[in-house]
Design goal:
The complex is a heterodimer of chains A (191) and B (880). Chain A is α/β, with parallel strands linked by helices and 191 residues long. Chain A is 34% helix and 22% strand. The chains are: A alpha/beta (191), B alpha+beta (880).
Chain lengths: 191, 880
Amino acid sequence: MGFLSRLASLFGFKKNEANILVVGLDNSGKSTILNFLKQGDKNVPVDTVPTIGLNVEKMKAANIEITAFDMSGQGRYRPLWEQYYKECQGIIFVVDSSDKLRVVVARDELERMMKHPDLERRNVPVLFFANKMDKRDAVSSVKVSTLMGLNEVIHNKNWHIVASNAINGDGIDEGITWLADVMKSNMATKK
Amino acid sequence: MHMLRRDKKEEEEGGGNPFNNLDKTTVLQEARLFNETPINPRKCGMILTKLLYMINQGDQTIGSTEATEAFFAMTKLFQSKDPTLRRLMYMGIKDMSKIANDVIIVTSSLMKDMTGRDDQFRGPAIRALCSITDTTMLQSIERYMKQAIVDKCHAVASAALVSSLHLSKTSMDITKRWVNEAQEAVSSDNIMVQYHALGLLHHLRKHDKLAVTKLVSRFSKHSLKSPYAYCLLIRIASKLIEDEDTGTESQMYDFIESCLRHKSEIVIYEAAHAMINMKGVTAKELAPAVSVLQLFCSSPKPTLRFAAVRTLNRVAMKHPAAVTACNLDLENLITDSNRSIATLAITTLLKTGSESSVDRLMKQISSFMSEISDEFKIVVVQAIQSLCLKYPRKHGVMMNFLSSMLREEGGFEYKKAIVDSIITIIEDNSEAKEAGLAHLCEFIEDCEHTVLATRILHLLGREGPRTPTPSKYIRFIYNRVILENAAVRAAAVTAMAKFGAHCDELLDSCVVLLERCELDSDDEVRDRATFYVRVLKERQKALNSAYILNGLQVSVVGLERALHHYTLEPSDKPFDMKTVPLATQPITEQRTTPGKEPGDISTSKPSDKLASSRQDVYAEQLSAIPEFANLGPLFKSSSIPVELTESETEYVVRCIKHTYSRYMVFQFDCTNTLNDQVLEKVTVAMESSDGFDVMKYIPCASLPYDTPGTAYTLVRLPEDDPTNVTGTFSCTLKFIVKDCDPNTGEADDEGYDDEYVLEDVDVVVGDHVQKVMKPNFGASWDEVGPDNELEDTFALSTMKTLEDAVKNIIQYLGLQPCERSDKVPEGKSSHTLYLAGVFRGGHDALVRSKLAMTDSGVTMQLTVRSTDPNVSDVLVSAIG
């Protein structure tokens, strides 16, 4: 914390900070999206290995300081997601649009998440990335939204779906900006 | 105001430990602060410290649910880049990895830190990662571990190497694949990395002896940089020498010797230490190591001096001659400002010193005796004791020295050590007896320790009457009656009675003094005095011997049990003392033998105590078996089990013989060493032609693999001829075999009979005799009288020395040597051995055996006295 910001926090100008939970099935591209966000324009592709447990990343996007908890999507680590529900102000749910077979699994996970006591009554914005748009057999974001049954599953929360490609970054900034805006307005109303 | 004062007080008492009164629930509550954003590193660090303190302190255990919650809260701290908090967090992960669930969650985060750019996080991250990883997860981090082992940063490489060492406990297969990386790390130019890499390399190849040999020979040639690695190499090499038993011949030895010329002190010391601890090393081979240590003795560093003198002290135990070369340096160390060094130097000198230098040394020691603590004084006392046993002729100087030490101030332990030493010297050296007793008498005149005073009075009662002028001790003893507390007075009364019983000329005076004690204020003292006066006034040698000079010889536990039994089943018959089991090993037997180190004595004591209660354990076990309940009291159990099988055969059987007044019980402890068999109905069939009848077999119902079981055989002793007590039994193990699955232990239903021939069991005279210590053999000899005396002369042609003869006679007869007659003085051609015991049925048995050396062997005149004529017969016929 620099001197100026410390001074600012002393006078009550709390900087905009938020915790975001990044979830989704394994191999849907969560870590790759965060990598892109972290590195911004100077995008150097790195080998991404399956995450075990979680990764914590800090970044600045759309004028907001974001701490992202990048959860592992592998089956046996999914039960651990709930440990982080309580403290998050936003959720990014990543779906692999080219993997039509497993969209149902993703829907199951989403339903379970929405029913969790730590999330059920809170107005947490959920951003969906219909990822891997570069793949030939990828379906459109509208189709993903219907397959996931987003209208039925989510009742009391703001949500938005964006088609994305984490390799070249298409759609990611758009999604994050939406999420940041909603979170900012949420914070403002709370105050 | 009141509160304030209390706070202040608490502060003073607490000694400034802020974590003294931590409460588990509060700390766990506080740990929720980790979830807040933004993170406050200072506060979170404090809470984490409290958490760590609690886990490591261990007096409030944290449950796994609570720990898991705290652990997950802690994972949120990964967003902070504060170095202190980070490092605390790594420690937290390590400590909580054993109690919390799902710790695997932090794997990716730690992997990121481990491969990250910040060097100061990488090492700790590796250590934390390895503590949360199990074998299945290890494969996914293997690539990173390999990289870390050969990392440029030393801290990272060391952390990876040490972690691999820990991991190999559970996942040896995977860590084995990292040998090449470890090889590369050995050539690192950092001393720590090199040391750790060598350690890992050795650990991975530990079970392959050839590979270890190669490892040592390779690294002993191309020189390592790290002195620590050298030390490790020396240790590996000396272990190899020990395992292969190659001694000084091997290349390894040459390597260790060459390390004596290394430039680092730590390596030199390690090499010298290794050489000294080698088995079967000769004094000549030690010389280079000793001369190196000699140089260390004059080093300005206290650690080096201490290490050197301590090692020399060890050498002096085995090879005192090798250390004599350093005597001059050691003498300089006596005045060392570090008292530990000085004391070790003195004890070493006392071990190596020649007879001529004793006087001078003693003078030197006394000059600083007042400056050292009690513990060290005890060490010095013990050293003097062993020296005194080594040079008996110098006892005068040492006795004087010990007595002057007794007069000085000191704690109980210290005084006890001195008294012990004096008593040992007295018992070992008859010339020193008078002087020693005089010193002890002087000591009890002003002794505040009841235990020591009673002990000395007991000794006076035993030894005093047999000195040339017993009368001079009476004054010291009677003074105790006037001046001391009840326990000491009672002991003094007993001691005085012994003088009266033994010395006729003192009898009247002792009776007068004892009559005065009958007016004592204490019950015990009065009782004792009255009892002794009545016994002494009878003026019968037999009574004196039975009730004063040789006290009760029964085991206390046995007596207690017998009396309890008697009160439970009242009968008209008076209580019979002979039914009480005898004390197997009288406590007076615990004395020191010359040449033994003080350490050996302390290890032998517990086993003696064990032996005295062992028979009670057997008695309890046997009486629990209904068939044996009416056999009467157990008279004796053989001390060492006899092996009836070769070791490492299919079945292992050991036999213990229990003797009752008319029966014998053979206890067979069997072990089945075949894991694919279950034995059932195991009995040991016994056959004998010597008039012994087998009455009953108690089988062992089932004998699974590797679980010991016990079968018994009851035999009636021949009754028609009481002198027929010895015999030989041929034994066969009979059982039903059932095959079983080695893994589950489930047996087939069908089995078949089988048998297994065991070695013969002999019943010897010793099985019928219980050892009893008669402190005053002469009195007992007169007490039994010559009624059943038998005498015979034997020529023991097979014995070459008197010591051999004494050892064998004791073994044949199974009697207790008395009056220290089992020790043959050196250079004498004749000796008299006194043996005492009790024969089965409670008959006293005493044996006097006069031995003489002749050209053709040892000639023995054996005289047996007993209260039963048959017993004398049996004992005489036992030798032959």
